Amino acid sequence: MDDSLVLSVSALTRNLKSLVEGRFAFVRVAGEISNLSRPASGHLYFTLKDEQAQLKVVLFRMQRRYLAHDLQNGQEVLCAGRLSVYEPRGDYQLIADTVSFRGAGNLAQAFQTLKARLAAEGLFDAAVKRPLPFLPRHITLVTSPEGAALHDFIRIARRRFPGLHIAVYPVPVQGEQAAPAMITALTRIRRQIQTDVIVLCRGGGSTEDLWAFNDEALARAIREAAVPVVSAVGHEIDFTIADFAADLRAPTPSAAAELLVPEQAALVKAVALHHSRLLRLMTQRLDAWEARLRLFRQRLFTMPHPVERLQLEVARLKARMERSLGRLLAEHDHRLREVVQRLQRCDPRLALARQEQRLRLAHNRLWAAGRKTLVDKEQRLGRAAAVLQAVSPLATLSRGYAIARRLGGQRIIRSARETQPGDTLELLLAHGALQCRVEALRPVRDPGAA
């Protein structure tokens, strides 16, 4: 084998670096932000992804200053820069010079759409949240048995309250089978396990890693649980649909243990403190009552006629009470009469009777007005008919006149000059019509001629 053809890892990586950086000295790449990291150096590291691939991107602190606003996971962005190969790890990445925003990514849009729809249904309302027990005796963790989140929760809970019973229901917390498995776990816990609270527990991860907790069916299963459900998913900056549907959202699994489990030592100390306070208050109260009893005994023995004075005092208080009760009863009786009078004035039956009377008057007026209008219309119709009858051609025909027109025509003949001998005419009479033939014309002198 020719050793000259064998490349070292460093040499191959340098060749690749030269090829990549020379071929892609400036590129523009669009995608969705994921796994965003903000270290103390001020640089931004994130993954730019689409449905089929992903690309690591770094935005240095100097270029970060020119962002319109801060980057967030799920945003759709357009990055412009150059490709580079990081030789120590053999990774290629995009060194971004500019980042422009294009809107929310597909996962972020799906998250916001589902969140808005479930919120409109009232699934996240504070009124449906169940109160958490002050001191749970049994906690069920729905989580992966291999995750560090489980061990963190158990360690902190047992440290705070050693006698607490914790059960673990193992489920996958990432991938396509995670959401159905958690739904099945919640259903079986409701039917088979007596527990005080359920905790959905998972450590941090990318948006894709936590996507199982954005399942709609899982959110509804959380609300259908028989006991309170706590969501302890991811880090403090991570939010899922399960966080909003749960009765309590804990920033981290460790925080969930601190929120759910009180410290046993603090409880013992508080009980002892309250016991001492109660004992001190009871002692002070008993001492005060004992002092008052001695004072009353002393006053009773020093009275010349204690029984007679007490009887007089009782009689005075009785008379005072009778006078007070008499005044009180008189005032209430006066108020009662006023209320009765107001109720009588506001009696709906009286108001109904007045409205009925007004309705009858209105009905009579309407009927009279309608009758008068009808008579007026009949009279006007009669006068119009008389006028029409006076000017009607039928009335003229009834007086012996006739209307002449050509047979089959409609135009009326007003002069003999409009006809010729031999023409066939139709004469319209008051009763029937005549068919005539013109034999001769006899001109008539025009009365208007000179």
From TrEMBL:
Its EC number is 3.1.11.6. It is found in: Cytoplasm. Heterooligomer composed of large and small subunits. It comes from Desulfobulbus oralis. It catalyses: Exonucleolytic cleavage in either 5'- to 3'- or 3'- to 5'-direction to yield nucleoside 5'-phosphates. One of its GO terms (biological process) is DNA catabolic process. The keyword Cytoplasm applies. Belongs to the XseA family. This is Exodeoxyribonuclease 7 large subunit. Keywords: Coiled coil, Cytoplasm, Exonuclease, Hydrolase, Nuclease. It is an enzyme of class 3 (hydrolase).
